[in-house]
Amino acid sequence: MPLNIEAARRVQERLAGRVVFLPLPPVEIVAGLDVAYVGDTALGAAVAVRLADLSVADRACSVTKSVVPYVPTFLAFRELTPMLRAYMKLRAKPDVILVDGHGVAHPRRFGIASHLGVVLGKPTIGVAKSRLYGVEKGDVVVDPETGEVLAKVVNCGGKRYVSVGSHATLSDAVRLVEDLCRGGDVYPLKAAHDLTQVMKKAWRRGALSHDEYGDSCP
After folding, report:
1. What is the 3-state secondary structure of the chain?
2. Whole-model pTM?
């Protein structure tokens, strides 16, 4: 199904005004969300981790037919559904959600982490491996037109571009991501990514269902 770019752009521009910048609440559980693909099947993973000792509090999976192609700056329209379907199955609900993607470091200030945060009304943080928008100046990414700081560059086994999704401040987001950097990766996101790789293997051997109501983690 092709994406209606102009309609999607209008959605982003309208919802960007609902992004909230607030100090993070006390954090006990952090979730990482990720999506992988096998053909037209989207495999969503959510892993909730206790901040105190990085033990896994819960994990959940989703298997969804992917109907929207990848279009740069419109990732949420492809991946938000599998992410949300995995997240909603978590029994241990997180205080903060990390997303493998951008928040306000986006041409319309509304990347996938912001989209998720606005939909859920919860603190979300974008953690991306590559810069999508803005100019890198030292350890920050700024808007080339306004000079506004959009993201901070955090060294965690390589560059990680950290931006506010919603319901967070950039300083709090950076502090939390730095606390979660273990072994050269941001642990909750690595755990979610690793789970998607297990899911891919399970899907290929027929051990996962492909109906919208019967997903389970391998």
Report:
1. CCCCHHHHHHHHHHHHHHCCCCCCCCCCEEEEEEEEEECCEEEEEEEEEECCCCCEEEEEEEEEECCCCCCCCCCHHHHHHHHHHHHCCCCCCCCEEEECCCCCCCCCCCCHHHHHHHHHCCCEEEEECCCCCCEEECCEEECCCCCCEEEEEEECCCEEEEEEEECCCHHHHHHHHHHCEECCEEHHHHHHHHHHHHHHHHHHCCCCCCCCCCCCCC
2. 0.95
